[in-house]
Design brief:
2 copies of one chain form a homodimer.
Chain A: H1 18-26, H2 31-37, E1 43-44, H3 45-51, H4 57-69, E2 73-78, E3 84-89, H5 91-124, H6 128-132
Antiparallel strand pairs in A: 1-3, 2-3
The structure holds a DNA duplex (20 and 20 nucleotides).
DNA sequence: CAGCATCCGCCACGATACTG
DNA sequence: CAGTATCGTGGCGGATGCTG
């Protein structure tokens, strides 16, 4: 969705690869964090705004609407004054939690190695002139 | 990487959440597809270009360089004329394959439900006037 | 064959202000 | 409290052309 889907048929295309379909859903800045905020059950709009550091009201609304459209999130409006709204994962949304947690686990375990690899790479491709400044 | 990392500390921030760290690596248009292309072992540049439908040379090079920098991919230059280059996953890169496959599996199993949910949502929020045209 | 250089359009995202 | 409306922008990604 994020990108135009004008791709022809092939063995690995954006249209028929399962990866792409998932990316179509979760590959943007805030989606996974918002889902993450709901992993323990119902949560109110304002509470999410506080828990997901750095997100703006605009992006939170936009993200949560998209997830609702995708059938991953439910929206419960509680008619009080002022109104409050609770969000939670649907059963379908819950099923996404498991694979996501494994990815998170991978990140926790391996990210330091990635950071090291980057440092090595950057050092190796640094000009000798720049190296002398260290 | 895709986005600026100017976020303060919090319980869910871009900097300390495992999800974000993984997204930092795989969340862009082509990365997962390129990794996918290497899941069965060595593969040459031109072969990837053909297998990953729709990717341009620029983006393939860019993606593969980033993965190399992250320590997930190895580059083997074979000194022939004209030169050929083989790419393959590193041991670290291989470890990412498992969680990625589960995500792909999730996509295969559940994507149709997502598509249905979207159709329902769009229909529900279509104006009655537009509905009459159906 | 396997790239790199350049130019450019587009849209995801951020900031700000207003509302029921 | 939980949103909408509007405007501005950075940089991702596409297209094209050139090299060793």
């Amino acid at each position: 969705m994020t990108y135009s889907s004008k791709t022809k048929q092939s063995d690995i295309s954006l249209s028929n690869c399962g990866y792409s379909k998932v990316l179509d859903i979760i590959s943007n800045k805030w989606t996974v964090l918002v889902i993450y905020a709901m992993e323990n059950g119902k949560i109110r709009y304002g509470e999410m705004l506080r828990r997901v550091e750095g997100i703006s009201k605009k992006m939170l609304t936009q993200t949560v609407r998209k997830l609702e459209r995708d059938g991953l999130v439910q929206r419960h409006i509680i008619p009080t004054v002022p109104p409050s709204v609770e969000y939670s994962l649907t059963p379908l949304g819950e099923t996404l939690l498991q694979p996501m947690k494994e990815l998170r686990q991978w990140g926790r375990v391996n990210y330091t190695q990635v950071v090291e690899a980057r440092a090595n790479y950057d050092f190796a491709y640094t000009t000798t002139e720049e190296k002398f400044r260290l």
